[in-house]
Amino acid sequence: MTEANDTCHYEKHEWLEEKFYLISVCGTAIALFGIIANITTALVLKRPKMRSPSNIYLNALAICDCFLLVTAVMLYSVEYVYEYFENVLLYKMWYSYVKYCYPLSNAAQTGSIYITVSVTFERYLAVVHPNRRKLKCQQSTTTPVIVAVVVFSIIFNFSKFFEIDIVERAECPNFSRLALVSTPLLSDEIYRYVYTLWLSQLVQVLIPFFTLLIFNTAIAISARKQMHRERRLSTGQAHLNEMKERSRDATVILIVVVLNFLICNSWGLVMTLMEAFYGVPTLVVTWPKFYTFSREAVNFLGK
């Protein structure tokens, strides 16, 4: 009897109420706003007159971000909702999709990051090197780049399909009936050290963060100089060239998008460096509440 009780043990998350209001209430509200904003953006950018390399990238980014936000809500918000309200039906539903939603959400995150990097590079060429035609991105090259990013994102995160399993314990009631368990792959020390710790952090955080920081700074400086130059040259003119205005608008939108990305992921970079320097076990033991909520914030803000 004691063995059965141990097997069927179920324990709620620590600080559940705080996590429920932080992630399930506030986080979901922010995610819903983001989904509506991205759908609106995608519809606007689909108009024929809006077609340009930058806008094609931004349209793909909006679609990718929508998928990312939906999966983030399904993964993080729903888990705390079923625990907080002790809803068995929602609990079963969450376990029915979590194994597949987890890698798809990570793939969407990778895709979102590298579409942002791609459109930043396109704007960098257009703004910083406007006279080098051979370097300019064309509409015909954007689709292959987006497809390549999607394929890379799926391949890079494909192993996550095999990291967790769902175990059903028929003898256990209610919330102790189903459980997530690590597969041998995730339990492998080499895999966890090389892929989960270093490779994932390198690809998902370090490389894109500093790439975007460098390119976005160069774009902002060059765009500012260009605007001052155009003001001097266009004195007395009623209208500026329409193509230049569109290019400038795309550049401003991109700068805002990238700044948002850098702000949302800056704490993720700090957490990555802390995990590398101190180690996760030390952070969990020394600053349990700080580390737990920082990780929760990074998981959701990074989305």
Automatic annotation (TrEMBL):
Pfam family, one: 7tm_1
InterPro entries reported in the protein's UniProt record: GPCR_Rhodpsn, GPCR_Rhodpsn_7TM
PANTHER family, per database record: PROTEIN CBG23488-RELATED (PTHR46709)
Domain G-protein coupled receptors family 1 profile: 37-303
Top-rank taxon, per record: Eukaryota
CDD domains (UniProt xref): 7tmA_FMRFamide_R-like (cd14978)
Localization in the cell: Membrane
UniProt name for this protein: Putative 7 transmembrane receptor
Keywords carried by this UniProt record: Membrane, Receptor, Transmembrane, Transmembrane helix
GO cellular component: membrane
Gene3D superfamilies attached to this UniProt entry: Rhodopsin 7-helix transmembrane proteins
Transmembrane segments: 20-44, 56-77, 142-159, 202-223, 250-270
Molecular function, one GO term: G protein-coupled receptor activity
Native organism: Trichinella nativa
Record has Membrane as a keyword: yes
Keyword check for Nucleus: no
